[in-house]
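Intended use. Records such as the Pappalysin-2 isoform X2 entry shown here are meant for training and evaluating sequence-to-structure methods. They are not intended to support clinical decisions.
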Amino acid sequence: MLFVRLLAVVLIMINTWLLNSAQSDHIQRYKRSMAQRADSELAHLASEQCRSTRQPRQAAYSALVPHLPPVAHPRRYTTRQSGLYHITHLEESSCSGGCNSDANSNPGLDSASHWGKGEKKVSRGNSEAMISKDKEERHVKIIGMVISPHPNFRRKPPSRADVTVDSSSDNDKPEVDGGHSEGPHKQLLLKKQQSVLTGRVRRTLTVSHGEDSWAAFPESILKSRGIFSTFRQHSDYSAEIEDYPGEQEGPPSRASTLWGAQIPDVPPKWMSALYFSGQKEQLRVNPAAGIELPRAKFSVELWVNPEGGQTNPAIIAGVFDNCSHSLSEKGWSIGIRTVKPGGRKDARFFFTLRTDRAPKATTIYGHQRYHPNSWTHLMASYNGHKMKLYIDGAKVGESSLQSGNLYSPFMETCRTLLLGGDQSDLGHNFRGYIGGIVLWVLPRTHEDLLKGPSRIDKREPNLALWADFSKVEQQWSPHKEGYHPSIVIIPIPEQEHVSPFLPPPCGLTTCDNTDIILGYNNHWQLRTEKRIRYRIVNICNDDGSHPTVSQAQIQMQHQALVEAFRSYNISLELSTHNVQNTSVRQRFILSNCRISKIGNRHCDAECDHPLTGHDGGDCLRLGPCYNWKRRDGVCNTECNSIHYDYDDGDCCDPEVTDVLKTCFDPESPDRAYMSVKELKELLHLSSTDTLNVFFANNSAREELAGAATWPWAKEALNHQGGMVMNPSYFGTIGHNNTMIHEMGHIFGLYHVFKGVSERESCDDPCRETTPSMETGDLCADTAPTPKSKACHDPGHVNDTCGITLYQDTPYNNYMSYTDDNCTNHFTPNQVARMHCYMDLVYENWLNNRRPSPIPLKPMVIRQSSDSVSIHWLPPVRGPLHQSSPTVDSVNCRYCEADGVFHQYAYEATSPRVCDSSGYWTPEEAIGPPDVYQPCEPSLQAWSPELSLYDANVTSPCPETEGCVLMLSFLHPVVPDSLTVWVTYVSADNQAIANIELITDTDESLDMGPQHVFCDVPLTLRVHTEKRVAAVKLSTFDEKMEIDAILFTSGPHNPLCSSCQPLIYRVVRQPAFSGDLVQQTLLTFTDSDVVKDKEYQYRVQVEADGLLSELSPPLLYTHGAAYCGDGLLQGTEDCDDGNLLDGDGCSKKCHMESGFNCNDEPSLCYVFEGDGVCEVFERGSSVQDCGYFTPHGYSDQWASTAAASYQDQSSCPALGATGEPSLSKLCKPQYLEMNEKPSLDIWFPCTAQSYTQTHYGEEDTVWLKVGFAQPGVATSVIIYLASDGAWPGEQCRKTVFIQLCDTGGRNHSLGSFELSCQQNPLVVNVTHNLSQPFFLTTAVILNFSSPFVAVTGVALRTSCHFSAFALTSCSRRPCQMDTCSPPQLEHASVTCSPGTERTESSHCTVHCHQGFTLTVLSGKGHPPFQRETELQCVHGAWDRVVSCQPIDCGPPDQSHVYFAVFSCPWGTTFGKQCSFTCNPPAILQGDSDRLVCLDDGLWSFPEAYCKIECSEPPTVPNAKLLVPQCEGTGHDVGTVCRYKCNPGCYVTGSLKTKSRKRFLKVECVEGGQWEEGGCEPIPCPSLPAVYEGMFTCTNGRHYNSLCTLQCPHASENHTIRCTKDGEWTEKFTMCTRLNEACPPPPDVSWVQYACDEGFSVGAVCYPTCSAALHDPVVLANSTTADSVKHWMLPGRVQDIVCTGMTRWHPDPKLIHCIQSCEPFGGDGWCDTINNRAYCEYDGGDCCPSTLSTRKLLSLQ
């Protein structure tokens, strides 16, 4: 059997790709190639001089240092533009003049941040808050300042100090949440009008877990008015609230039923908002409010703060149809959804609208994915013919596909305005904050939007709630009973002054930003001397002898470093760490080999060395090892390999051999080698405050001289970071510059040849062709160069991207690969980068404790006649500094100004076995995120996928809890929020099945399943007062990848107590007349200025009394123009009055990509797709202007097609004909992960299956397209949907093109490279002038790859050439062609003669009423258009048109749901259709007629079909709770609730964590009630020893009485089954039982072991005499030979001697049947398991349940 299985596995490997679905094929092929490419790159490093840890890729999450929290900018509750919001502006400030645990922290510890000099303490009970004397009012905002926990969030989220009241407390007085359960709590008395309400005051957005949550509130407010919110009940996700209707079914974010509680006055600078948790908390407009919903024109404004991860779609607000189908698209909505329906990435804000007459809805999207945890202003408008969407003041979308009124007056009662979700029960609910909503019955314009509400002299809005929801219940009511959002009180967001300075697309950190580096480059003050500590880790013997490197080497190398860096103001301080350990010294340290690769049956060059047994024998095939030599107590060389288990251990036995020479087994502790990673782990030398330099050796094939850790890598500051040097290249003559080179990597420098020799491909956007600070090595003063060791320019180089001449290359730069005698300098840009990274990352490596300076000059943000306001950036280190550090202090980079603490996972484990490739291990989820290309499989993330190379051996996640990842944290804290980076998902439903929080007391808190996007981190608010130590994530998506997880605490965490804000000194020339200007804010207003006078402003940083160098200067003339003043001047492309990016006009006053701006202040809009063909778009915008054809030329699209590989159902060749689809963009692989093919694109799908079967081979494929009108070709244009490239491939795929003439001859044009970067591919045609021009009728395309996809081919011809000319040495002019006027029926034709100006004749065609234009050939036009213009080209009209009767077509089912249409007179213009309702639907309204109108649409329906349910069913064991449910006539969506009787619970909930007593049944589509019931909960079975001794009145159900019958009645005992499913007590055995059971008989091949004897209560254990058999209980008439496959016998573990002195179960009924083999669910049908007892082999014997859907029988 074993041999058969092994043979089968071999067959699987041969046929692996044929046995998988196409979906799985693509993902696995991609991941396999990625893993193999990573292995090959690692092996390639064997020939490299240098390598760096974690090679960077293009960043998708561009932000600050990826492994650090976003603290480089001070936290603010920011909003984009003040003019967009209906709230009072905040006052501007104005003046002239590494981690330690807190698990045992003292509850009385002062956890508030200290605010520097000039401060006073404000005491609140047991806590103190530090408030600046002159900023006491301002401190309300500072204390709650917050930024996103994700380093890539560009905008700042709302307050962490929002407040709710918990109604679940039993205290008479609510208490303030202090975060520590053992700490004291402040007692506050909160009043509602004249009654006292009981509840616990707590913060729900960012709970304060320090001392006092209320430090931000003035004392008078707390004492007099209190702070109210809605009332909430907090519990575990799985818990249930018994009291109806507060039953809870979701996470603890859902509010209770106390809707409408009065909210007291909100303190100044604070606001109220609605928080939706994504459950069922929709609000609807209260009919009693009398709010009129717009029926025609309207505008709606929203102010929202969405969280990361949403349902798809997530509806924020909308008007919905409440009279027909719950999935009706009629109405409008605003929300978040992916551009690709059902997608998992690129989620954007959207505006969708459908009038009642339109056949389908129209959706317009934002220009970029939404920013989670940031306040965003949205406005959608509709003016009757155009939809428009505005985001943060910029118009980002427009469409004219909808027109007319939304609905008829009759349907007004059928429309409902909802907040937080739609009317369906599909879970399209919003998660996040809504801070405002305004509804206008007019279309507001772009100008109106920017003016602000106070400057608009139009009608008041119909509905307006903005930053004040105190009276929300007057206008809104819960859409579903018992569900509603929370009302939270948060600080009003401050206006954002300047957008962050982000890295370029090819950069990763702030120090890659061009402006930052130029600041360091141009101002010497930023490059003052920095003294760096580094440590040589020298390993020697126990007695100190034989060190790895000598003292002479160390001194020589140190001197070389000092001389190299001295001129750049960088000095180095040397120390030596001697490790005296003979055992380690004698080991061979491998510099580039992973130990798991040794003996993996593959020769890995980086592991090939004699002391590894040449990669465990993989790289050296030894002679035969005879069996008699094995296990003979001698190490036999020929047997010492993985193939013979290293001589069965003899070669790793210290008593047999010298293991330091012979032990090659990677699993042996005595092996002769170790990896450098193991060395670092063993020594565990932290890199927090010094650079560690280790030494390692090369393999036999390596030339590696050194390796370094990038400053942005996870390991940069821990014990796995540092530098690794080859001792031969350290401090030796001719090799001193190697360490200088590696030091450059440590300080953030790339190789100078990065943009040429280290690019991903020729289309890599980071490829460097000219010197640039945004591509290549990100230095503009190092010219592009290929990798070379020559000390001269490379000259002409022919590589995969063509022949290139390289001159003036930096071959003598330290970051090149040339020798010591050639390299001698760093460039200014490189020096600037090194100084920046020292400030950003290596603060603790510096001896100088002075604060780093501000990198850029201050910026003017506002001016008036007598004042100017300036703003500056904080230093790149961040706005905090370490002051008086304690043992418990952490790095201030992980803290925020108010003491919020961020921490990533510290340890990770998973019960899931790691993939055989060695990648995707749990350790990849430790630390900060480092996946730079989300939504694609990555090697830097954890994934539960197994058997990557054995595709048929499926490994689904366990059905119980799925695939599990456990992440632990170094410091248990009370979390405020949780952030999870899920960077790849393949499942269509919720990717995360559950998130379980595990406290430091081992309690579990479930957060339930979660929706995620792969390019947006999931952010969740956490509702618990307990310290959380670990997180357990579960998924059923075995291909999902998790990159990182982050916990964020509430404010005032004691771990951040030593972190203080920096103090900024503003220095002006001429000097201020008053006192020294010192402040912690980043904005300063100077009111002592004179018009036309010049001033110089510089800012200095102060920390602990030490001053930084001054910032670069701002030269400012008061009254002069500046970027951000709203006026265009100088080099400005635009000026929208702010310094913000993302709104069309950047902070440098340049138009952003995709935007156009007009007027002053600039009004910016996304021009692509707005339906307007502007002059600058004519050659570029296909969507607005159509496919561009130059003047004098004509393009025609292919009309016929044939291909070598095609399938009519999935990839027809005709997909390449006609105009290309505008929605199909070119990408490297046409079929993305799990993407379905499209019929409007051709790709050789059948050739791909061949390639997958023959991996590594690519078959040439061809496509032939024909054209209706042969012509003299000037160009062939090919539109690609995929260029066939795979990530990392250097060579592009090619196409060989041939033209076919009318005579059947082929003419070759040559071979051309394919690239999505150069799409379409335009190939110009050159004709032989000595021959007559030929007419092209077809084009043949031969592709080198089967992964190319084509969406269209065009043939371009010109009027300048004639096919009849024998020679065309001179071009003939394009003279005017004349065409006969077209003869059209049902149309009027007006023609004008051609002129020299137009070069052709024109005719205007106007169809009569009731007719519409139809294009028979040529360029199309919008539907139902009655007029068009024809142009005469080459003697023929450019289009052939006709006027056809307008036909509305049969009415769509969505026009009137639940109706049947009858159109006996047809569906053309003026005709009528009638409709009748399908039972049980009932017609509502008087008119059942529709009329086809002249726009091709049916008229408004004036009636609808309504479905109702009869009276709700009677549910056994339950009582109906809702009186309104009695009777008939219930609308669809009506919910009736029942309460189960005592002892009964909702059917199906008995097996869950929480048993539900409240049953909900809903009236669903079809007029039926949902099924459901209540079932009694049984008490546990009574012990088997009492079998036959008791009787029960009602079995094991509620209130059943069970009585134990003893021989003496006095010992009889009765117990009762309670409503909780528990017995009131336990039975006690009768005492007067003296008999024993007889020995059980050994029958039916069953034997018994009775070690306890045979007395009452004794237990015997049955076993089967035959091997691989199980003892089971069978019915009386059944034997082991007569068992049927469908029978499910119970296995017997033991039998018990009962009080009746009989064995239970009866031994006579116990038989032995064959055991199950352990191969269920392995993809093979094992017939021995094909029975119910073995779960039918896990479904392997049925094609419908087999994962591969292909059954392979194994006998």
